[in-house]
Amino acid sequence: MMKKPLLLTAVACCACAVSHVARAQKAEPVNVYVSGVSLSFPDPDGVDDMFTKNNKAVEVGLGFVAPKGCKFVKGGEDSQLEVTDGRGVRTKAKFDNFFTRIGDSGAFAKHSLGLEQRPVFPLKLAGVVKMKVSEGTTTLPGQEFDARKGAKFKVEGMEITVKAAKDHGKASGEVELEFKDTLNVEEITLTDAKGGKLDVMDVSKSSFSFGSVPSCTYTYQVKNMPAKMKAVVAVNKGVKTMDIPVKVTVDLNAPAR
């Protein structure tokens, strides 16, 4: 299938986001908008399929702007949006929060909604999606740990395991931390055992989730890595789930090129 972006006309609403707690019900609206549309066309020679496999006939990019004083964080329950096409045919599209991309500042989020059957435009998308927001971050006291495989330590009840550690004191040591994120972790900074700065040359992060609590792995490349270190954890505070109404109409005003 060959995918091409199209020019579009999108009419979006400024949706009022309602939380499960009273305080967030007074929050500013979450702005929901359409950030782009792409179509996949039949590729009889299979050339495009050599490079990318795409079984979605249409993908609609949805953008979200967080309320002032809040930011989006990972998590939230999956939901569905109802899609009505120009013929009045209605289908359901899954909104899988795991694939929602959040900007570094947390102020913006984007999600690509895929439709397997090619609809007739205009499209009307309606429903409620559940996303998590926080009111900021707070830093917890550093917790000392041994940089050896299998070592464990706790931060506010959340257990962190040293999945791997090697090359202590060498030009480039490596330590890998693994944990189930029950604290809504924003960042983990490593220091020496006395809280002094370390020369961290690189940090890589990965996460996956089959439920509401993601499993995370942080891998650090540390110059002259000591045998004992501290993990200073910054966590999102005031995390709440918001129900965000979505009501957008997408129409195309130009042919594909």
Listing every helix as H and every strand as E from the N terminus to the C terminus, the arrangement reads: EEEEEEEEEEEEEEEEEEEEEE
Counting DSSP H or I runs of 4 or more residues, the number of helices is: 0
- The proportion of residues forming helix, as a percent range, comes to under 10%
What is the β-strand count?
22
Indicate the mean pLDDT: 85
Give the overall shape: elongated
Q: How far is the N terminus from the C terminus?
A: 15 Å
Q: Summarize the main sheet.
A: 7 strands, antiparallel
What is the structural class? mainly beta
Over all CA atoms, what is the radius of gyration?
22 Å
Strand fraction: over 45%
The residue ranges in which pLDDT falls below 50 over 5 or more consecutive positions are 11-25
Describe the structure.
This protein has strands at residues 2-5, 9-11, 14-15, 18-19, 30-41, 58-65, 71-73, 79-84, 90-95, 101-102, 108-115, 123-134, 136-139, 143-146, 152-155, 158-166, 173-180, 185-192, 200-208, 215-222, 228-237, 240-251. The chain is built from no helices and 22 strands. Strand 10 and strand 11 (108-115) form a beta hairpin. It is elongated. The two termini are 15 Å apart. The strands form four sheets. Strands 2, 4, 7, 8, 9, 12 and 22 form a seven-stranded antiparallel beta sheet that branches. Strands 1, 3, 5, 6, 10 and 11 form a six-stranded antiparallel beta sheet that branches. Strands 15-16-17-20-19 form a five-stranded antiparallel beta sheet, with no helix packed on it. By secondary structure, it is an all-beta fold.
List the defining traits of the structure above.
mainly beta; 257 residues; six-stranded antiparallel sheet; elongated
